[in-house]
Amino acid sequence: MKSIENVAILMSTFNGADFIEQQIESICEQSYEGWTLYIRDDGSTDETLNIIRKFMKNDHRIVLYEEEKPVNLGPAESFMTMLSRIDANYYLFSDQDDFWLSDKVEKTLLVMKRLNQHEPNLVHTNLSLTDRELEVSAPSFSKTAFDDVQSILLANDITGCTVMINRKLRDLVKYQISIPCMHDMWLGLIAAQFGNVDYIKASTMLYRQHGNNVVGSTTNKMAKIKGFNSISEKNRLMTTVLTARELLKKYGNYFSIEERKTLITLSQLGKVSLFKSLWRIKKNRIYKHSFLATTSFILKIMLNYSSLKSSI
User: Fold this and answer.
1) What is the Cα 122 distance to its own chain's centre?
2) How many CB atoms lie within 10 A of CB 116?
3) Which CATH number fits domain 7-208: 1.20.1250.20, 3.30.70.120, 3.90.550.10, 3.40.50.720?
4) How far apart are CA 93 and CA 164, in angstroms?
5) Does residue 27 contact residue 93 with C-beta atoms inside 8 Å?
6) Buried b (16+ CB within 10 A) or exposed e, 185-207
7) Model's pTM, two decimal places?
8) Cα 219 from Cα 139, distance rounded (Å)
9) Segments of the chain assigned to CATH 3.90.550.10
10) Which residues are CB-neighbours of 273 under 8 A, at least 6 positions away?
11) Calpha distance 113→111 (Å, rounded)
12) Phi and psi for 164 in degrees, rounded to 5?
């Protein structure tokens, strides 16, 4: 690429010694070279920091974001903290245990720069699922993306480690450190409402699946069905409720009347009766992108509603 932009890659680490070396190496091998990798460690007790410092000796573009009194923040708040304090034109987010294809930054930046940079923009990409040894199990995670506000609230399909945002979006969320969901979901919602979300159908990275993933993915349909009444599904519903509430609180006046009805309906799940919630969902046409997906969503609400009510 002819021009060099100021691109910040943000990585939050926690006991990532098993895989972080491969991930950093894949970033160092990027075809686009105008990046700086900022790493904030979230309290590792293994060799993670020693591995990072070894790379820092050989590449000045790798910076350890050190704090006087380090605190374990968890991934979402850790990423949002870095985002609030680091200045760049564009930002990417990196997990500690994946592997980036060599043109990931270049390909994503090319699509990003086609968008209006006076608006808050987010670009995310497809990915390939692998086992812990990076053997590919699913070359394509998803060829389609549903990136309107309602779709993201019901089932976020934006994977943080594939994301690039521009400075305009960063400035909108700069002071929002504590958020009710993962950073990728929150950034996607803000970009969808106030700017643009674009999706690259080609995979740009290998997404490693292993027992220690903070957030994992699966393409196994039977596993998804069995998980309808799982703790993780209850947590997802709770995230939808709390995030809808936060959107109303911070940006309610920027949504249309119909959009606010959707947010209110979702924010009050668990506060009103199950029958009333289901009636509002139907009345306000809160559907997912297919009949099967909508049916699954309704079933999950019905199965988990008592738990939702007790948690609100």
Assistant:
1) 11
2) 11
3) 3.90.550.10
4) 7
5) no
6) bbbbbbbbbebbbbbbeebbbbb
7) 0.92
8) 11
9) 7-208
10) none
11) 6
12) -125, 135
SS (H, E, C) the chain: CCCCCCEEEEEEECCCCCCHHHHHHHHHCCCCCCEEEEEEECCCCCCHHHHHHHHHHHCCCEEECCCCCCCCCCHHHHHHHHHHHCCCCEEEEECCCCEECCCHHHHHHHHHCCCCCCCCEEEEEEEEEECCCCCEEECCCCCCCCCCHHHHHHCCCCCHHHCEEEHHHHHHHCCCCCCCCCHHHHHHHHHHHHCEEEEEEEEEEEEECCCCCCCCCCCCHHHHHHHHHCHHHHHHHHHHHHHHHHHHHHHHHHCCHHHHHHHHHHHCCCCCCHHHHHHHHHHCCCCCCCHHHHHHHHHHHHHHHHHHHHHC
Q: What is the pLDDT of residues 207-243, one digit of tens each?
A: 999 876 544 555 555 556 566 778 889 999 999 999 9
Q: Which two tokens stand for residue 83?
A: 């985002």
Please tell me the distance from the alpha carbon of residue 127 to that of residue 33, in angstroms, as a whole number.
21
Q: Token digits for 19?
A: 């895989």
- Tokens encoding 269: 């799940």
What's the pLDDT at 310? 82
State pLDDT tens for residues 107-157.
999 999 999 999 999 999 999 999 999 999 999 999 999 999 999 999 999
